[in-house]
């Protein structure tokens, strides 16, 4: 399938340079001295939304911040010589929040690529106004919370857009004890209006997202871009192990009920069981001992568990096997344990039509040797996991050198970003052609 975009290489290269420069600019909006951390409903969140809104307005987009703090820009569909403010929209998006000590591209690059697609496809219609000559409008959404860094619950921004907000989330608290409800009020959002962020399926044509891969697959294959086939399912838990705090010197081993050792053995069990089930990946990323003194046997340990897999059933079988192991480990050590599930997202298949248009876009961009660019499933979570409840989802991955992400060394090259912009813009045109036919 030939490319539809009349691509001017200089224009695409300058779009990629702008994406790279803006990733640098957004990286300076951080709460972490010497690093990047930008969490939901923080002053940094407000600042990046203002910047994104400014960039959207420069493109002639109509802008708004929705009831969940997502920043939205819209280019209306051109019908004859006017704009249709109500036409269903193709959403191109990703997120602007980060993990602690983050890289500068995870999520951010996808939002900025979305803005460059809008720039490439917009057309002036007079009076300084712009629209798109497509059978749909284009919306770029900068989601406000994908990582869940602040409240432990991921995908808050896109869940609000998908109408999946649950009332019990209001009581979630951050590390300082601030509830999600209070944080909304402090940010200037009204919790009572959260329902207004929800979009109806008939308002949307689909959802496309470009994202760095966050793994080494493309780097290893020597390919710049891939079609994403599905987004892995994920479950997250907070686990507590209870033992008995006692004197570190005076308590012999046969009297110890050391909660930290139980938690440590549990973390090793996670690795062992997940290694046996090759398609499941488990991570213990947080571990704390209480009361947390050098001379006290830990009486309590708390740790997190993140479990991911291509298929929900395999992931759930691993959790069941793990609970049996934890019963055995804790029983042997005289400990008790319990777990609270804080996140459960089913795997989302990318829609066949959107996989096709992304494939056509990649082929048209000439990033891959032949007509069959790589197709890989995403082991990382993305906003499409919730948007999948109301719209078809398609994703394009960009090579992430060495596969490092959720780390300051996270990278993507300007030339791959240029290919990604070119491919995604062409994907949009292929989708438009499909809808016209
Ligand atoms: C988000 O980046 C996640 O997959 O944890
Ligand atoms: Mn991330
Ligand atoms: Mn991300």
Can you offer a commentary on this structure?
This protein is of the alpha+beta class and 437 residues long. It folds into two domains: 2-232 and 347-436, 3-Layer(aba) Sandwich (Aminopeptidase), CATH 3.40.630.10; 233-345, Alpha-Beta Plaits (2-Layer Sandwich). The protein contains eleven helices and 20 strands. The protein has helices at residues 9-27, 43-58, 108-121, 156-161, 180-187, 217-221, 259-276, 312-333, 352-365, 384-387, 414-436, and strands spanning 62-65, 71-75, 77-79, 82-84, 89-95, 123-126, 129-131, 137-143, 204-212, 225-231, 233-242, 246-247, 280-283, 287-290, 296-297, 300-309, 336-345, 348-349, 375-378, 393-398. The strands form five sheets. Strands 1, 2, 5, 8, 9, 10, 18, 19 and 20 form a nine-stranded mixed sheet that branches. Strand 1 (62-65) and strand 2 (71-75) form a beta hairpin. Helix 3 (108-121) packs across helix 11 and helix 7 runs antiparallel to helix 8 (312-333). The radius of gyration is 23 Å and the shape is globular. The protein starts with 8 loop residues before the first helix and ends with a helix.
């Amino acid at each position: 399938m030939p490319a539809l975009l009349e691509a001017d290489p200089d224009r695409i290269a300058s779009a990629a340079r702008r994406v790279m420069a803006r990733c640098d600019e957004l990286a300076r909006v951080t709460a972490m001295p010497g690093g990047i951390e930008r969490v939901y409903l923080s002053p940094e969140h407000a600042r990046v939304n203002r910047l994104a809104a400014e960039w959207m307005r420069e493109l002639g987009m109509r802008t708004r911040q929705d009831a969940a703090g997502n920043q939205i820009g819209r280019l209306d569909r051109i019908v004859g010589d006017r704009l249709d403010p109500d036409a269903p929209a193709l959403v191109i998006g990703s997120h602007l929040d980060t993990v602690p000590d983050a890289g500068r591209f995870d999520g951010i690059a996808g939002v900025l690529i979305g803005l460059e697609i809008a720039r490439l496809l917009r057309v002036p219609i007079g009076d300084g106004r712009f629209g798109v000559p497509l059978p749909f409008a284009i919306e770029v959404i900068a989601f406000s919370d994908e990582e869940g860094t602040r409240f432990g619950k991921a995908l808050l921004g896109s869940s609000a857009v998908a109408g999946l907000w649950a009332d019990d989330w209001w009581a979630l608290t951050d590390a300082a004890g601030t509830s999600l409800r209070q944080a909304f009020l402090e940010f200037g959002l009204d919790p009572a209006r959260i329902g207004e962020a929800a979009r109806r399926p008939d308002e949307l044509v689909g959802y496309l997202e470009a994202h760095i891969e966050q793994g080494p697959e493309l780097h290893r294959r020597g390919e710049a871009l891939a079609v994403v086939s599905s987004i892995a399912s994920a479950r997250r838990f907070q686990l507590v192990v209870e033992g008995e705090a006692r004197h570190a010197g005076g308590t012999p081993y046969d009297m110890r009920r050391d909660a930290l050792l139980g938690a440590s053995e549990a973390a090793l069990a996670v690795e062992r069981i997940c290694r046996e089930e090759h398609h499941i990946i488990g991570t213990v990323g947080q571990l704390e001992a209480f009361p947390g003194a050098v001379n006290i046997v830990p009486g309590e340990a708390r740790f997190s568990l993140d479990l991911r897999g291509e298929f929900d059933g395999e992931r759930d079988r691993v959790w069941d096997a793990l609970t049996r192991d934890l019963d055995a480990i804790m029983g042997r050590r005289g400990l008790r344990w319990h777990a609270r599930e804080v996140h459960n997202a089913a795997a989302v298949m990318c829609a066949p039509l959107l996989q096709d248009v992304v494939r056509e876009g990649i082929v048209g961009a000439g990033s891959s040797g032949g007509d069959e660019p790589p197709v890989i499933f995403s082991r990382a979570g993305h906003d499409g996991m919730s948007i999948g409840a109301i719209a078809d989802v398609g994703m394009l991955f960009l090579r992430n050198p060495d596969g490092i992400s959720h780390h300051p060394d996270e990278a993507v090259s300007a030339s791959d970003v240029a290919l990604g912009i070119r491919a995604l813009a062409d994907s949009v045109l292929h989708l438009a052609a499909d809808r016209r036919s």
